[in-house]
């Protein structure tokens, strides 16, 4: 590996543990991401200096996240791996998997909890707070579904709006404020 690739792979490995994956999975992913052609498990293991079993486990984890693509070469029995096409495809895959693993179970638990009427004031207060959390998570989840349907170009436009959206909402609030005031 060149120094620039080695640095990227090492950094991704360190960041992997902060993202909820182990270091080796992060390194395997980073190596595949910057590789100009698909790599087989032996090439991955040799490049990173990891065992065949560790390579295999890491690839399986990346497959579970739907972040790698399996290909075969005619006349070669080995399996070759590459990452998804664009960074937008990767972003959508990671976001969808995190949603499936983290957001959906939380929404399910909150829905079930909110069916309880609350036995006392402390429970009713807790349920009120959980309702706020549920509403925000549900709204975010619905917004995410809408984002998944956008093209990469539309996502880029939306993201580049940044503070312009905040300014537009402030103008709207100023314009509608007189309409919201109640007559005396």
Automatic annotation (TrEMBL):
Keywords: DNA-binding, Transcription, Transcription regulation. It holds the Pfam family MarR_2. One of its GO terms (molecular function) is DNA binding. Signal peptide: none annotated. InterPro entries: HTH-GbsR_regulator, HTH_MarR-typ, MJ1563, WH-like_DNA-bd_sf, WH_DNA-bd_sf. Residues 20-79 form the HTH marR-type domain. The keyword DNA-binding applies. SUPFAM superfamilies: Winged helix' DNA-binding domain. Belongs to the GbsR family. This is HTH-type transcriptional regulator. It comes from Pigmentiphaga litoralis.
């Amino acid at each position: 590996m060149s120094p620039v690739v080695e640095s990227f792979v090492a950094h991704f490995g360190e960041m992997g543990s902060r993202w909820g994956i182990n270091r080796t999975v992060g390194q395997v992913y980073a190596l595949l991401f910057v590789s100009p052609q698909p790599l087989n498990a032996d090439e991955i293991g040799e490049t990173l200096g990891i065992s065949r079993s560790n390579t295999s486990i890491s690839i399986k984890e990346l497959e579970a996240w739907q972040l790698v693509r399996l290909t075969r070469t005619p006349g070669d029995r080995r399996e070759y791996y590459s990452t998804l096409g664009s960074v937008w495809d990767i972003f959508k895959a990671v976001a969808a998997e995190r949603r499936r693993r983290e957001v959906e179970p939380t929404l399910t638990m909150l829905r079930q909890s909110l069916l309880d009427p609350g036995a006392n004031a402390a429970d009713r207060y807790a349920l009120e707070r959980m309702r706020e959390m549920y509403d925000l998570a549900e709204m975010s989840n619905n917004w995410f579904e809408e984002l998944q349907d956008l093209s990469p170009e539309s996502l880029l436009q939306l993201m580049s709006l940044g503070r312009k959206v905040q300014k537009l909402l402030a103008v709207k609030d100023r314009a509608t404020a007189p309409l919201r005031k109640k007559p005396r």
